[in-house]
Amino acid sequence: MMAALRSVSRLLTRRCLGTTLKRGYADEMSFTFAAGNQVYYDGQSVRQVDVPSFSGSFGILPAHVPTLAVLKPGVVSVFENDGKVNKIFVSSGTVTINDDSSVQILAEEAHPVENLDPAAAREVLNKAQSELSSATSEQAKAEALIAVEVGEALVKAVE
Predict the structure, then answer these.
(1) Quick check: keyword Acetylation in the entry (predicted)?
(2) What is the largest CA-CA distance in the chain?
(3) What is the rounded distance in angstroms from the CA atom of residue 106 to the CA atom of residue 33?
(4) What is the Cα–Cα distance from 159 to 154, expressed in whole angstroms?
């Protein structure tokens, strides 16, 4: 029995090592980023992407380990091959990093940071905080807490 387990372990280790070596040679990644309101990137090659996630913000480089994560409200920073950095605010969504070094972000809502109005962002936060203080049901409180989180992230993005 133990010999069989060791054989399986060696086989899995070789397969994982082969996958890691293949992933390790990637020098670019195909990037797709879309929201309900717009497609921002459609398979373009980019250098790096930084994303806000509930498990903590993290950077994505070519050859990143395959991952599926939930985006929290915040700024996605896209480092393009020409050195330009494009910052896009997302309210929520998902990020998928595939074994072939392709990355997809699907956002519920997304807007370039330079298009955000600081006064409007503060107004969104104030309204959400007001709704939270007047919420009477558990559902209303939960919805208001989500709105407050988005409002706080908006304000932080425009500062």
Answers:
(1) yes
(2) 68
(3) 6
(4) 9
